[in-house]
Amino acid sequence: MIVPAPCQRLFFGESSPLLPSSTSQEHCAPDTMPGDLDSETAALLRMVVLPQIEAASSWGDLVMRLREKGFGLGFRAGRMILNRLDSGAEICTGRSLGAPLRGLAARLGRPALRLSRDGLSARLQG
User: Fold this and answer.
1) Please, is 89 exposed, middle or buried when counting C-beta atoms within 10 Å of its C-beta (0-12, 13-18, 19+)?
2) In what order do the strands lie in the sheet with 121-124?
């Protein structure tokens, strides 16, 4: 049985999930969440992503704003997950950015999700 490699959480200057990778497209196993980011990466990511999240007026607007910055959204096990558009690599959860799904759902409304075949993950509809 092949076990998926764990999510890599490295420093921003190394093989970070934020930087383009030419060798592999590693994804987290369906039953694990992205790990914690180091403090420098988290601070830089918050500077780029949080203003987009805070300015969004709907889920569609949020997706569009994140797409312009090279990021996408996924959902798994009741959590929102930020990922890279170019590789699909999962970066972190919304909570680790300071924007938990519960707070966004209260502000933007409950997201309309399409469940994946694995039964654990989902994507926004539309």
Assistant:
1) buried
2) 90-93, 79-84, 71-76, 121-124, 113-115
2: which 2 tokens? 């092949």
For residue 53, count other CB atoms closer than 10 A to its CB: 22
pTM, to two decimals: 0.72
The distance of Cα 67 from the centroid of its chain, to the nearest Å, equals: 12
- 8 neighbors 26 (Cβ within 8 angstroms): yes
Phi/psi region, residue 46 (left: phi>0; alpha: psi -120 to 50; beta: rest), is alpha
Provide CB contacts within 8 A for 20, sequence distance 6+. 86, 87
Placement of tokens 């990778």 in the chain? 21
- pLDDT per residue as tens, the chain (126 positions): 333 333 433 333 334 444 444 333 344 454 566 777 888 988 999 999 999 999 999 999 999 999 999 999 999 988 999 999 999 999 999 999 999 999 999 999 999 999 999 888 999 986
CB-side neighbour CA atoms (13 Å) of 48:
14
